[in-house]
Amino acid sequence: xxVRTYEQELSYIKQVSDVQYEVNMGFVPNMHVPxxxxxxxxxxxLLFEELQQHVARGEHGGFLPAVKQLANVAALPGIVxxxxxxxxxxxxxxxxxxNVAAFDMKNPEAVVSPGGVGFDINxxxxxxxxxxSVADVEPLKEQLAQSLFxxxxxxxxxxGIIPTTAKDLEAALEMGMDWSLREGYSWAExxxxxxxxxxxxxxxxxxxxxxxxKRGLPQMGTLGxxxxxxxxxxxxEIYDEAAARKMGVDVTGQVCIMIHSGSRGLGHQVATDxxxxxxxxxxxxxxxxxxxxxxxxxxxxxxxxxxxxxMACAANYAWVNRSSMTFLARQAFAKQFHRxxxxxxxxxxxxxxxxxxxxxxxxxxxxxxxxxxxxxxxxRAFPPHHPLIPVxxxxxxxxxxxxxxxxxxSYVLTGTEKGFRETFGSTCHGAGVSALxxxxxxxxxxxxxxxxAIHQCSCxxxxxxxxxxxxxxxxxxxPALSEVTCPGDH
Length: 490
Hints:
490 residues; alpha+beta; seven-stranded antiparallel sheet; globular; disordered C terminus
């Protein structure tokens, strides 16, 4: 292995705009495409400091720096265009969190990697609006916080109150939000405002292990821990009034609920099972990677298809989980305000996924291609008129939810054509954890450190900021709904 100085490492990284850097071929062995990352000056220093510390350690110990992980992904078979890192990028398992990579479905060598999805499959964010104002909530803030806490179980190992049998779980894994709708936990219009309409059709519950199902069975409708939260938020600033009206969040002081959670222990087990299978497949098929954490299998192989079908089940579980918590949040609000959720206009604005791999169509260097797009710790951001976004948002572009960093403001953005071309229609996901993880991660996600910086860079990748949501969780403390008890599940 070639050992380089920090200055030699930097010679492979070129700044191409105010917020974009390119990692040239040769930064790590066997790169098929370059890498690129989007950061401003505040975030840039964190990434380069991480690389410098890695060189100083002699490339031994600790996490690989995010820029190395980005480049290692660029060396995977079948990758096209570039390996992309978005503004809140930081080290993860195999892929960096915030890494996007697309693989050519027609290339028999192209791979799928669980590290490019993450352990918390379909970890995502859902925004629910209300017709309440801060003034309406203020007299009941303590009772409302307690009601939410009573309805939505939180913490490591928490168990749900949604009655679920083994038969129910099988149906939920296959049907996603269609199961929630059938069982009365979801409104029909909720599906319209959810990626994939809340159901991945390639799901096959027979590909999910008994261990994964056992872990998932008691956790339906639970928040979990780490960087997951359920926050009551208020619209603080509106930047695009027309788009805000389309989403029904168009009044300053309007109260909303944001839920950030995923597939819990079931998704974690699906990823763990797949990694074991794929290590054997790599040895059989002669697939070599720069990092063992990038275990993968050819998309067309039995192992690759098994994983994609099991991953789809975990994604469906996550949508059911967020739908169940939406049902519980609606009940909590209805109880406190003595009005039905419908009277409170508790509609889902949108539900975005962070950790997922999807088959999508994109133009690459003038060629229309079918790709398997891995988004890890990143958010889909499709532009106006794209056929996969709801009719309600055809003129505005897909709503993009950038969750705050454990108490800082959240943002709602919209997808753009430029972001679609440059990043396969992706942007960052926010929702960090303060004071957890390696030092570079602490710096990136501590308190208010990166909120504005991420907002500025995500505008470049995604589009103009539609509105800002300030959380009022601190003023309705009760039992906090976002316990910081373990690192994030990515």
